[in-house]
Structure formats: structure tokens, C-alpha cells
Amino acid sequence: MLACKMKPLPFNLCNPKKRPAIINRSYALLHFIAATSLIFYRVSSLLHSRPSLPHLLMFASELILSLLWLLNQAYLWRPVSRKTFPERLLQEKGEELPGIDVFICTADPKKEPPLEVMNTVLSAMALDYPIGKLSVYVSDDGGSSSTLHAIREAWKFGRSWLPFCTRFGIKTRCPKAYFSRYEDDLGEKGYHEEKEKIKQQYKWLEEHVKKAGSSGGMLGETCSLNSINHPAHIEVIQDESHDTNQAKMPLLVYVSREKSPSSPHHFKAGALNVLLRVSSMISNSPYILVLDCDMRCNDPTSALQAMCFHLDPRISSNLAFVQFPQKFHNLSTMDIYDGQLRSVFLVKWPGMDGLQGPMLSGTGFYMKRKALYGDIVQEDTDPIQLKQYLGPSNELVKSLHRSNHHNSVNNMDSPSRLLEETRNLASCTYEKETQWGKQVGFLYNSVVEDYLTGFILHCKGWNSLFCDPPRPAFLGTATTKLNDTLLQGARWNCGVLQVALSRFSPLIYGLSRMSLLQTMCYAHLSLQPLYSLPMWCLATIPQLCLLNAIPLYPKVSDSWFMIYSYIFIMSQLKHLEEVLSTGDPMWTWWNEERIWMMKSVTSYSIGSLNAVLKFFGLREANFVPTNKVADDEQVTFYQKGIFNFQASTIVLAPLVTLVSLNMISFAGGLARIIVKGSNWNEMFGQIFLSFFILMVHFPIVEGMMFRKDKGRIPPSVTLFSLALSTCFLCLGSLILMP
Ligand SMILES: O=c1ccn([C@@H]2O[C@H](COP(=O)(O)OP(=O)(O)O[C@H]3O[C@H](CO)[C@@H](O)[C@H](O)[C@H]3O)[C@@H](O)[C@H]2O)c(=O)[nH]1
Ligand SMILES: [Mn+2]
């Protein structure tokens, strides 16, 4: 009894979400029955008459949609939510908290302005964590002098910023966010004077960094250097003044790895692996927080919250990472492009959290360093074998068995030798003939390194956790332009399909290594680009047949029609229920329907095409960083919820072509029924489908015909697309002619 009372209170709690689970499972059961009978209907009708190509295509589409639907149910099976108690953790483990190395990646000073990177760095340095146990590393793949300059300035400003935050308990520790939005009224003595003082300091800094940015070039003197060709530059940011009265600061290290056009550099995964090695020489903390350069820390307690899991003896031994959701500071209420990725972070990840844990999501996760070193790094592994894995550095191998220590650079034995070693670890050639990117560190096989790395960790038996506290832990910049959204989606879909086409294909590789439900989640994401096939079919074939009076769906009076209606209506209602249950307004449902269909015929298709081309070696992998700067005009469109069609033709043309095609066939089909008196009963399904597509994509119709502003669809694209859709319909009709 006494022992029971003495038991320390847990640092975290996990609550199964019972009601959603019941709703999801009941819906899944009914929908499964309906979908199975629909397949039965198709098969039997194909057997009874000579199958035509349109019927076969419809059947194939329905099969793919059913498969993806089935895989998707795994996310909905066992959702949970979690809560942490950082105060309990501090009470019990305050003194023995482990070190954390924060990794921040940036690659392009034009798309990722140094001022923003600097803000992220400051917010990370100001995390609520013992200063001596926090180190921040910035990886600059662009090797840009203005980024380095901004980092140095960040350090100087941090000297006043950090004490200010701690003294007055400031919650918003990203200076830009604090000064631009955060209105507070801390009655504390001296607060307002201090705030004014530091505000002036920040204003000066902002102007200074912007000015330096506009004249900035590459590190080093030679102008032949550029973002894909430069030597390694590693700098521990320090104060020249050596004033011992100054406030203590977390360690801040700038790392620009060596790059040369002749060596592959593996994008962000490559950058993170360099940081892993370099940091192991300097602070070697057992935990790592990875942030994209735009993901500022919004809640300084996130580190403590993550430690509530990592230090919980009930779960810590198998726990690889704690993932926080990506949230964004620049979303509009309409969020027409679904920049918030609602279904991923509010439905899918909490769902996976009830299984083996959410997927790794690139940014905002606290990872155990050991998990990244792979199974090979054991107490008793032979050092020679270790070197085959990790490369020739003795120092790196030694670091594996060294418990973390915070090497304040000043009391290192020989800082210059250490920096020399880090440059070696950051060189282009270091990874040659090692297992980096294959079995060690972040993996290289896909441009979505996060998805693949997390998948392999789960396959090896590691778990992960999802932590979504009410105050967002991190806030990033969402894409606010149609073009950026669709091209970013294309890269992600290319990456996941690359995995599906590799030997790590989740359905094959995962099934024997993790639970069925967890495998289904990974398989769903990796096969998601396949949505493009049924979506292209459903937007063209029924329409073509409508024009030619070929029915593809049962008659309205037929009882099979009920099954189709049931499936359609129930999936819409289920989607609506899901939107409302995550606290979003009704219009989110409509917006998501639209952007999902738009993505399936653009992002998913382009991504699939790229992945297939890469599979056959016809195309190089690439990772063009997403734009994080927005001009006023673009922001105005986005804020008002108006589509901005200033986008590349490769994404616009398919959308406009499909919409025009639906317009023509809807009008044609309707006219035919009215004028020629063809069978309404038989063609209703197809008429409705075209109508639905046009309703959902009304903004495109508007952009083609009614808008005159800059964001409309260019008339050239409209004309081109009209011609294309007419050609398709004419040719198609010729082929279908009996
Ligand atoms: O060669 C490169 C390319 C990119 N990056 C950095 O990678 C981060 C993510 O790039 P971003 O352009 O913002 O891509 P997103 O599509 O927004 O990123 C999402 O998808 C990526 C791939 O799955 C993940 O790595 C990210 O964490 C996740 O936010 C940024 O900080 C970049 O600076 C590099 O360091 N080196
Ligand atoms: Mn990003």
C-alpha cells in the first residue's frame, strides 16, 4: 500500500480517443461492405457483357480507390492523445537533464532570408533548458556570407535577448514574432523600459542584417565559389570581448559543409549527417532537435515536454523520437491551399500514435542520437568495423562511447585541432565507402529523407510519439502560393513513391518487420501518388462517355445505384465529420476536397512521373527548397481566400484542361438529354459527376472566364487547354464510335 503511494507521478499520460475510434470503425465496416459489393457488381457486369475499355478503366479506378481507402483506415483505428507534466520532470530530474543539440538547416539565402534564419536560431537558443546543456548548430548549404553574418549578429543580440526572456518570463522567444504581434502587459518593474531598449536593439539588428544581406555573397574570397561549390567552413560563434560578466549562452556553431559539383551531396539528409558528425566532436549530446530554418520555437518548454517522454523509464528504451506537429504562423482563416496539412497532423499522426508512432516529419522532432547510428554501434563492436561504417575518423569512433559533455570551446585542449577534424568530417569525400545515408544517419534513398528514415527506424523496432500540446511548440511558414504548394507536393510525392519503388517498399519490407496497421499507414502514404490514376480517369472517361451517350453507372432506378450513392455520400459525410471533429469550420471540408483533387492531377501525377523517371535512371534526384518569402500581392490574394493562378504551365494546364473538358461534356450531355430526349435515368451518374467536379473547382471556372486581375488564369492557358480538351473529346469519340 505504502509502496503504491510512494510511486512517483508519471511525466506523461496517454489517453485513447474512444469516441472517434468507435465512429471510425463503424464507418469502416459499413463502407467496406458497400465497396466489396460494388466490386462484385463491376465484376459481374463485366462478365455478362463484352467489356469495353471505359468500363475496364472505371473498374481499375474503383479498385485503386478502394485499396487506398482500405490502407487509410489504419490511421483511424486507434487514435490517442497525450499530455506532459514538465514540472514533475524538473522536480525529479532537474539536475540530470541530458544535453540537446539543435540542428537548423538552411540552403538558399534568397528563398530563406538570413533574418528569418536568425530568428529561428535565437528562438532555439532561448529554449527553456539548462544553458550548459543546449547547443545550436546551423547548417548552411548555401555557404552564404550573409547567413553567417546574421548568425554572428544573432549571437550578440542573444546576449541581451536571452536574459530579457528569462527575467520577464517571455513566452514568445522568437524576437520578430514577439515585437510584431505579442502584446503583453507584464506589470513587473522595469519591464517596459527594458522592452523599449531591446526593441530598439532589434530594429537596428534587423536593418543591419537586411543591408548586409543585399550586398552578401559567398564565404571566402574567390568569386568562382557558389552554392554548389565551396569548401567547408565551421565556426564556433564566440564573443571577442572575453568579458566574464556577460550572461552565459548556449553554444552556437555555424557549419557550411564542403560542396563540389562532382560529389553528390544528398540535400537535407546530407546536411543533417554532417551536423551529426560535427556535433559529435563538440557537444555530442544524446538528443537532437531538428528544425527547418523557418520553424521557430514558439513554446520554450518543448524540450522539457519531449524529455517527459524520453526520460520516462516505461517507454524510453525503445523510443527513437518525439514528433511535434508542423504548425504555421502565416495561415489565413480560409487556408485555401490546406497549408496547415490538417489531416496529417490532426488525424493521421494521432492515429499512428496509437500504433507504433507517427512518421518522422522533417522538422520539430527530438531524436535520440543513438537511434541514428544504427545497430552496429554497440558497446562491443570492433573499432575497425565501426570505421567501415562511420568513416576513417578515430575521433568520431571515440565519441560514440563518450558520454555527452559540453565542450565549452574555450576549455578544449586544442580547439584548432578539433576544428580541423570537424572540417574533415564535413568534407565531400568523407562519406565515400561508408554506410552514411545507407545504414547510418538520415537516409539518402529518397528526397523525403524524413519519411524513409522514420520508416526504417520503425522497421528496426524503434517507437515514436506524437506530442501536440495546446500551445504550438514550433511555427513555420506555410506556402501561400498555388504554384509553391503544388510543386512542394510534387517533390513529396516523388519522394514517397521512390520509396514504394525501392526495396524498402512498405508493403513488402514493412510487413514482416512491423504490425499490419503500421505497415498500412506507411503503405498508404507511399502509394498516395497513385490517386492520380483514378482521378485522371474519373475526370475524363465518364465525361467522354456522357457525350457519346454511353452509360458507365447503373440507372437511378437500379438498386446498385444506391450503393454508389451510399459510398459517395458517406465518404463526404465522413470527411465532413472529421473536419468538424478537429475543430475546423465547414468550408475546410470543401476547400480540402478541391485542393486534394487539384493535387491528385498535378502534384501526384508530376511526382509519380519524376519517381518513375528516376527509377529508370532518366532523371536526377532534386530538392529545390520551398520559397519562404512572400510578396504583398501574393499575401493579399491568399489572405482573401482568392486563388492566385500565377503558376507554371505544367501545373495550370492539366487543371484547366480537365475543368474545360467537364464544362463541355456537362453542357453537351445535358443538351443531348433535353434536345434528343436521351435517357436521363441512365446518364444521371455521369451528369452528376461532371457537375460535382465543376462545383468543387468553381474558382478555376471563375479564373478562366470572369476574372480580370493579375491572379486570373492567363487567356493563353485557357485557349490552349480548351483546344486540348476538345481534341481529346473528338479523338475519344472517334475511337468509341461503334
Ligand atoms: O539541399 C538542401 C535542401 C534543403 N535543405 C533544407 O531543408 C529544409 C526543408 O526544406 P523546405 O524547402 O522547407 O522543404 P519542405 O517541403 O517545406 O519540407 C518538408 O519536407 C521535407 C522533405 O520531406 C522535410 O525535410 C522538411 O523537414 C519538411 O518540412 C529547409 O530548412 C532547407 O534549408 C537543405 O539543408 N539542403
Ligand atoms: Mn518548409
TrEMBL record:
Keywords: Cell wall biogenesis/degradation, Glycosyltransferase, Membrane, Transferase, Transmembrane, Transmembrane helix
Binding, Mn(2+): 268, 292
Molecular function (Gene Ontology), one example: cellulose synthase activity
Binding site for UDP-alpha-D-glucose: 111-112, 141
Transmembrane keyword on record: yes
Parts of the chain that traverse the membrane: 27-44, 650-675, 687-705, 717-737
Localization, UniProt: Endomembrane system
One of the GO biological process terms: cellulose biosynthetic process
Listed InterPro entries: Cellulose_synth, Nucleotide-diphossugar_trans
GO cellular component: endomembrane system; plasma membrane
Protein name per its UniProtKB record: Cellulose synthase like G2, putative isoform 1
Biological classification of the source: Eukaryota, Viridiplantae, Streptophyta, Embryophyta, Tracheophyta
